[in-house]
Amino acid sequence: MLSLLDALRETENFVWCWTAGCGNGHFHEGGNDQPIVTCSKCGHRTCFQHQVPWHTDKTCKEYDAAKAAEAAQAAEAAKAAEAAMEAAQVKAQLAKDAARRKKEEEQSQMTVQTVSKPCPTCKIPIQNFYGCDHIECTKCSAHFCWRCGTLYPCLCTSYRPPYMH
Question: I want to staple 17 with a disulfide (CB 3.0 to 4.6 A). Which of 22, 132, 163, 164 is the partner?
Answer without folding.
Answer: 22
